[in-house]
Amino acid sequence: MNAESAICARGIIRDFQAGQSTIRVLHGIDTDIRSGEMTYVVGESGSGKTTLISIMCGILWPTEGEVQVFGTDIYSLSDTELVNFRLNNIGFIFQQYNLIPSIDAAANAAVPLIAKGMAIEPARQKAIELLEKLNIGDQANKLPNQLSGGQQQRVAIARALVHEPRLVVCDEPTAALDASSGRRVMDLLREVAVAPDRACIIVTHDNRIFDLADRILVLEDGRVTHDGTDMPDDH
Amino acid sequence: MLWIAIRMLTGDAQKFYGLLFGIAFSTLLITQQLTIFVNLIERGASGVYNAPEAEVWVMDPVSRTTDVNYAMPSTALDEVRSVPGVEWAVPHLRAVASVRTGTGDLEGVAIIGVDDATLIGMPENMVAETKEVLSQPDAVVIDDGGVFNLFENGEDPIGQRLELNDQRAVIRGVADSIPSFTSQVVLYTKYSQALNYVPGTRNRLTFVLAGVTEGETAAGVADRIEEQTGLKAETREEFAQAGVDFIVQNTGIPTNFGITVVLGFVVGVAIVGLTFSLFIRDNIKQFGALKAIGVTNSKIVGMVSAQAALVGAVGYALGVIGTVTFIWAFSGNPFFKGFYIPWQIPLISLAAVVVILAITGWIALRSVLNTEPASVFR
């Protein structure tokens, strides 16, 4: 297993304004995410896990601190450079999938390729190959509302991986799935999203899948309270 | 990404058709109302256009239009004829009278007395018979629009007798004329006969129509006529414009049509703005996801612009087609006779559509651009 550092976060602080008061959500987090591992970020609601991965994947500016993704200090990039960095290096799987309802599964999965400038048909073909690998190649021409939740999740996974990013970020991938479906999705993710040169971060509080993690970071009140291969006994 | 943008838009059929309806309705309202307005006010010049031979119109200085006139002494005709550069000059009488039809109805009509010898002052074309029928006793020629007002559908006006200010008149022909602003029935007759039909006053010569000799300009001759006779002389174009200006200045028509056009614009902004905002709101998560994935703001602007452009192009085309269909469908109605769509009006509608889409698109776009990519994780 390649254990090189994919993300290096140092001194991450994030404050939010709530009326007149300032709320500190993250309190100087230092952590590394390694390639070749499936890393879970777990914690109670409000613990700051979504804020942390938003910062680590370049979609939310930290109040203080530095984030290097594959050696690039992403917050020193210009807005356009950062957007392009995300497009080239990061794949996202959202909790609610956020598929575009009026285009079919193949086109949805092909969105990152189309955004990179690839023509529609070659992009679709590449997406269909990936959908076949995810066992929903026969659903490629269906609209999202014609697919089950699990199938939509697979389309979202295909969309996250189609452009072969080096970092995959998943937000609560099993929240809308039953236990067996959730485990199948996680097995699938491990199969397709974890590679020696690729890191995978999963935000979850689904304790049914904790045993599938290579590494677990526990956040409490904006601080990392545990960093190990298993959940601590008191959770 | 433009393909995705278009599919996002057309995939939501309700909102897509709502947007099309908004733009098409606005375009239709603006184009159709402006078309009717322009054609209507141009009818203020119909009296001038119906006497195509006249290059210069001479009148009493207080006369303003073909319908708002003050009669001159009959000697004015000779005065005009004596002006250098005037090739010919003929008398022209315009007055109103009441006519009693065969069924006993009373109708206000315009009497136009044209030159006995040359028939200058008549419309160029006839719908039935020829201009020469005016040489028959008590002959009048009715305008084609007037046929619809005076006679039942299908009734042949030729040979019909009318009682015109207690005088006998017989319709001998139908002229192909541009309807007047008021769509009043017009009866053409010889000048000498017209003097019998209108109540006797000292002066009854309302206009002198003149032609200019070769090498002279109508404007130059008109100036010379004014200088030598003290009468008012205007070229055909000037007098036609005066008729249009009179309607614009003395009626509430521009205001009323203007209000309708503004309402068309406001309705367009309201419908399109509301629908576009709803469409963007429904898709805000998808736009947020696209931003997180790595679609730049400039591409998002391109996507929303493509959506607006599609809606604008299709909606505008539907609106213009609707207007053309409306004008075509009513072309058989005498009120709409000769109506056309000046090329400037579709351009004005297009500008209005562009403004509507720019306003609504900008409002919709703002919410997309303000969406933080991180919001997709919430």
TrEMBL record, chain A:
Source superkingdom: Bacteria
Pfam families (UniProt xref): ABC_tran
Residue ranges of domain ABC transporter in the record: 7-231
Residues making up the signal peptide according to the UniProt record: none
Molecular-function annotations in GO: ATP binding; ATP hydrolysis activity; transmembrane transporter activity
Nucleotide-binding is among the record's keywords: yes
Key words of the record: ATP-binding, Cell inner membrane, Cell membrane, Membrane, Nucleotide-binding, Transport
CDD domains per the UniProt record, alphabetical: ABC_MJ0796_LolCDE_FtsE (cd03255)
Record-stated family: Belongs to the ABC transporter superfamily. Macrolide exporter (TC 3.A.1.122) family.
Protein's recorded name: ABC transporter ATP-binding protein
Source organism per UniProt: Erythrobacter crassostreae
UniProtKB/TrEMBL annotation, chain B:
Location in or out of the cell: Cell membrane
GO CC, alphabetical: plasma membrane
Topological type in the membrane: Multi-pass membrane protein
Residues annotated as domain ABC3 transporter permease C-terminal: 260-373
Any single Pfam family the record assigns to this protein: MacB_PCD
Ranges where the MacB-like periplasmic core domain occurs: 56-227
Transmembrane segments: 16-41, 257-280, 300-331, 343-365
Keyword annotations: Cell membrane, Membrane, Transmembrane, Transmembrane helix, Transport
Identification of the protein by name: FtsX-like permease family protein
